[in-house]
Amino acid sequence: MNKRIVTFVSIVITVFILGTAAVVIRDVSAKKGEPDPQVIQDQLLNREQVYNQVITEANQRIEQLNAELNGVQADQTNPSNISPESAALIALATTNYEEPLLKLPELVDFEGKVVYEVQVKSGVIYLDAQSGEIVFNGVPQKIDSEQAAVLAGEYLGGLDPKYGVVKQSVLNGSEVFQVTFNNYIVYLDQFGNVLQAQVLQYTEVSNPTNQSNTNTSNNATTSSHSYDDHDDDHGDDHDDD
Fold first, then answer.
1. Is residue 227 situated within a structural domain?
2. What is the mean pLDDT of each run of 10 residues along the chain (241 residues)?
3. Containing domain of residue 25, as a range?
4. Is residue 104 part of a domain?
5. Cα angle, residue 190 at apex, residues 184 and 191 outer, rounded to 5°
6. Are strands 165-171 and 113-120 parallel, antiparallel or unpaired?
7. Which positions ≥6 away from 8 have C-beta within 8 Å?
8. Helices 37-77, 3-31: crossing angle, 10 deg rounding
9. Which of 23, 35, 71, 127 could anchor a disulfide with 39, C-beta 3.0 to 4.6 Å?
């Protein structure tokens, strides 16, 4: 609805009310027959008062409709009280500024409300365009070392997290939590998702002294084999002479 339509509707309402009042007064006068001059004068005064009252009410209604229209137009012209840059800072603050911003926030409709849509690497955040209040946070919350131990213990069947050894590690180029329980290692990402689990297998280590002797014996055998070949070649040369 624009301003021209509101004005037109108000005029139609005013004309209708005035016409109705005139018809009523005319019918009353016709039923009473020929009135005296004083009665006519009183009727004219009453009619003028009715007209003035109707016009006043119509003008008030027009002003009210115009005010409502101006309010709607103002909301459409300036649907937000905060800038896209401020919206981005508010949203990034909820992630401790650890999430990269993918693009500048945009105004969208979310459940019938005008909000800023802030897209970061791990999800999307919606905040009220008027107040800046977070209305939806789709970014997973990061965990700490204690939570990593609890989640790893649950993954392994309910192991007590106090027996888990947690440290920061790198898996496939990403920082992860490495939680060790005896012969088990569980890797979790920064949001608590289990990425990989391993079972440690221990093998018996041979005696270093025996291994050294074996290597020496092999080397000796190799050396002896090379020496025999040299003697055979030398004997063949002597026979030819």
1. no
2. 59 64 57 61 74 78 72 58 93 90 94 95 94 94 94 96 95 95 95 93 62 44 34 44 42
3. 3-77
4. yes
5. 100
6. unpaired
7. none
8. 160
9. 35
